[in-house]
Amino acid sequence: MPELRENLATKRWVAIATERAKRSDDFNKGKELPAPRPAYDAKCPFCEGNETPDQTEEFSIRDPGTRPGEKGWKIRAIPNKYPVLVPARKGASIEVKRHKAGIYLHMEGIGKHEVIVENPAHNKTIATMTLDEVATVIKAYHERYLALDRDPAYKQVLIFRNQGAGAGASQLHPHSQIIATAIIAQHMRYALIEAQRYFDELGKCVFCDMIKYELAEKERLVMQNDKFVAFVPYAALLPYETWILPLKHSTSFANLLPEDTGSLAQILRDILAKLYYGLNNPDYNYCIKSVPHYSACEPYYHWHIQILPRLTTPAGFEIGSGMAVNVALPEESAKFLREFKVGTP
Ligand SMILES: [Zn+2]
Ligand SMILES: [Zn+2]
Fold this sequence. Notes:
- The protein is of the alpha+beta class and about 350 residues long.
- The chain has one domain: HIT-like (HIT family, subunit A), CATH 3.30.428.10.
- It has helices spanning about 25-30, 130-150, 185-200, 205-215, 260-280, 315-320, 330-340; strands at about 5, 15, 60, 75-80, 100, 105, 110-115, 155-165, 175-180, 220-225, 230, 240-245, 285-290, 305-310, 325.
- The longest helix is centred in the middle third of the chain and has 19 residues, at about 130-150.
- The chain is globular, with a radius of gyration of 20 Å.
- The N and C termini lie far apart (about 40 Å).
- The relative contact order is 0.16.
- It binds zinc ion (ZN) (2 copies).
- The site of one zinc ion has 6 residues, from loops.
């Protein structure tokens, strides 16, 4: 019997289509790990050695004596060449005005869109990086998050990663993106409202309750370390959707402590390595969900990383209803990920 499940935090309903449930072998079928690629591609704009000399670097970790626009870096954050949103002109008001176009509302596309080039090498991905390299990626995320989050021009900062063409990536080179916006997107707004409603009713954080429950139940648990836990949500939207949350309540990604960077790198790398080797490099998106700066002192939200493998394609029902159809049982997705062992590089 198929069933509908509700995500306690987002209140989103998901159809778990057990009748057409697939197992890991079905998702794996006909797929292979990518053939080895060279570490340098002359045509890639992100490869070390292909820097544009006058390119701004918002953040970088560099060898001593090297300058922005030169080689000799470990990681760099640069403006996106094709930005979704652009910063306001210097000296302009930070208040972005809404305008009417007939009955419709519009505003200038003010924001900041950056690319975090995660590694000088063309042929790596988070799943195949060393823990030190992934920790460097987390450090860059945090530095850029802090800088954009405290800029009063922006209300929301979203860090995300698209892996593979099916997840929207246009470059093979390992990279993430960050977009700061002058509005709170509807998706985030709903999540904040639901978390606040739960807090108002029960006086506690819904995510903390989910962590406690999943740690006790164990069947959807994927892994945990000293600071973080990863589980497949009860109402997972897609096969192998996984959430990574700090064990200790924390509202904003801004609060990540430097000493916890290694633990976050470890759990993120290990989950992505399980996907990479266990399901032969599926396309995926992940994003860091965190509160707007002005809500950072509120008690109800709990920042987390949502990983969404792209093994199925949403069709008419999902588009029409907004209700996801998951063809894998969350408990089986979790069991597969929990039990799949990856050799540690
Ligand atoms: Zn490259
Ligand atoms: Zn919490």
